[in-house]
Amino acid sequence: MMKRRILFLVLIAGCAGPLSGQAAKFSWPEGKRAAVSLTFDDGRPSQIDTGLPLLAKLGIRATFYVLPGNVEKRLDGWKKAVQAGHEIGNHSMTHPCTANYAFSRANALEDYDLERIAKDIDAAQQAIARMLGVTPASFAYPCGQSFVGRGRAARSYVPLVAERFVLGRGYMGEAANDVAVFDAAQAMGTPFDDMAPGDALKLLEAAAKDGRWIIFVGHDIGPRKFQSVDAATIEAIAAYAKDPANGIWLEPAGAVARYIASRR
Length: 264
Hints:
The chain is an alpha/beta fold. The protein contains 9 helices and 12 strands.
């Protein structure tokens, strides 16, 4: 009995070893202790009109997960975003979500299969490359949902995203990403729409304490309202990240994902 117990403990230690070792060896660049990325979905006009001047004033870069139809409406503005060094990510061609959302009833994930969602994602990739001259390296799941079909026919399309992108970002995640264990194809995204500066900083500080990567997710940029990030909240995050005493690495999501992949 004692020999069996010792063998069991050895096996457990062997399984835990690589993971704990990976966590111990990982280090953020330039001695930083955590990372934060600011991401914004849909390619909304306020991101061009309000967001770009604000980010330029703060001297920081963000990730914009765009819908090609919205890019086409403000093409000159999105070209300026690319020139300013912001990351352009793929948010699908038609933004399919569950039929439980009335706005998506006619374009519901429950009516998709893997082939159809792959075509939708690839069409967006091609359109973005054609209009902006960049090929997105990261993807944001519309509505944070990563399934197609329903019931026994339901399937995850996470593997499709993993084949195409260095990062698949979710939405409404309740925790920052632990670099030792998180899946880059379904990384957690933390919403910060309608969030006061102090509340956002609390989340950032908690992530920093554990050496994690927090990916903030917003939509419009402007006065605090439904699905809008207040300029003051972005300013507070930027100020905190820029303070050397806090040890925060603020970079676009794709850049952070690539760095983590290189360290793994």
